[in-house]
Design goal:
Chain lengths: ~90, ~300
């Protein structure tokens, strides 16, 4: 499976309570990459999902600079090495 | 159209060269005073000069009463009303609250009926822009907003460089004690949320005026509600290195300024920048309007 770099907001370090370092996993869908992230850092779950597994309206996710809401959302396939950037709908402050 | 002359109380901001953005030494300093890393604030740099033509700005954010007049006259339906929910901060994070809208900012159990002189919330960029157009005005640019907040040269808060919880509607005002990091904020929020069931702690226009006013006499530029500007989010220096999360928001998001009632001191600074998705609305974000002086008349 392709290598995926996950980029999270700088303030999520505070939520995680630790330096996050580079976040890399092997995944072939956006859902697979996010599942990996949440297994590693469960405290990120409410920052990504509303309810059990619906992408929340307060987060936007870009796969190689493309909004996954314009693709296949969580089922968007990842076919090659990629970057997944997580951008809160309200970032900063 | 209501017409620009009938829309509330405005302040004439003279033309001037404004230093926009935070001084480097300030950014270095706040890293040691709160919990977020320098990269979180890097988008406030570098400080740079902007020539701002004279303009008029609302002295206060747009109120529920003013927005209600707009809706009554135009039949406008906000984004939150169309989608059936608005964002409310729950016990520990944001929640999509069914039925939350500008009329019911926390949800169906809440109403603005006794808060008509409070700022309107649960409005998206499109909602704010629609209102501004209706009154013959526009949203302020980011540079106009910051210039109106601190004057030609930088100061941390509209009234000066010393934080004072008695000058702005903030988390610290409600806590009546200093809050300078996430842990202290969470402790306050747990109590506040349990007591208020998500009902926004906005206050009427002028509640902190004149003690919280900017050098131009503009009120509530820190706290009460965060405010939409008209400026697409961008980096002040495209050659500088910024957090990739912020870089991704460039030209997709809109700049929001000012911080609101649930924020604490460092989130209420005059040069603090927030990147906000245009479709976003929550119970602590509103707006005010502006117009070029040349269009407004004397």
């Amino acid at each position: 499976m392709p290598d995926v770099e996950i980029v999270v907001p700088a303030n999520w370090r505070v939520v995680a309570g630790q330096e996050l370092g580079d976040l890399h996993c092997d995944a072939d869908t956006v859902r697979g990459a996010l599942d990996w992230l949440i297994r590693k850092h469960p405290q990120f779950q409410p920052r990504l999902f509303s309810g059990s597994d619906r992408l929340a309206s307060w987060i936007n996710i870009y796969l190689d600079n493309e909004d996954i809401r314009g693709l296949a959302l969580l089922d968007t396939p990842i076919r090659a090495r990629a970057a997944l950037v997580l951008v809160p709908a309200l970032a900063g402050g | 159209m209501m017409g620009a002359g009938s829309h509330g109380d405005r302040v004439r901001i003279p033309a001037g060269r404004a230093l926009i953005g935070s001084p480097e030494e300030h950014l270095d300093q706040i890293v040691g005073l709160q919990h977020y890393p320098r990269v979180w604030f890097e988008d406030e740099a570098p400080r740079h000069a902007v020539d701002v033509p004279a303009f008029d700005m609302d002295r206060h954010p747009v109120s529920n009463a003013a927005f209600a007049a707009f809706v009554a006259a135009s039949g406008y339906v906000t984004t939150a009303e169309q989608q059936g929910f608005g964002l409310v901060y729950g016990a520990s994070y944001w929640e999509e609250q069914a039925g939350a809208s500008w009329r019911h900012p926390a949800g169906p159990h809440d109403s603005i009926a006794d808060r008509m002189d409070h700022p309107v919330v649960q409005v998206t960029y499109a909602d704010a822009t629609a209102y501004a157009q209706w009154v013959g005005m526009r949203l302020p640019t980011e540079a106009e907003w910051e210039y109106a907040a601190h004057g030609p040269s930088w100061r941390c808060w509209p009234w000066g460089d010393e934080w004072d919880m008695g000058r702005a509607n903030s988390a610290e005002y409600w806590a009546q004690k200093p809050i300078a990091d996430f842990g202290a904020w969470r402790a306050w929020w747990a109590t506040h949320h349990a007591r208020n069931r998500g009902i926004p702690a906005t206050l009427p226009a002028g509640a902190f005026s004149p003690q919280g006013d900017s050098p131009f006499g503009v009120a509530e530029m820190s706290g009460n509600v965060a405010e939409w500007t008209s400026t697409p989010y961008h980096m002040y220096d495209p050659e500088r290195s910024y957090d990739p999360v912020y870089a991704t928001a460039v030209n997709r998001y809109i700049v929001v300024r000012g911080g609101g009632w649930m924020n604490f001191r460092y989130q209420l600074r005059t040069s603090e920048r927030i990147a906000c998705a245009p479709s976003y609305a929550n119970f602590a974000t509103g707006f005010r309007c502006a117009i070029a002086a040349s269009a407004a008349g004397s």
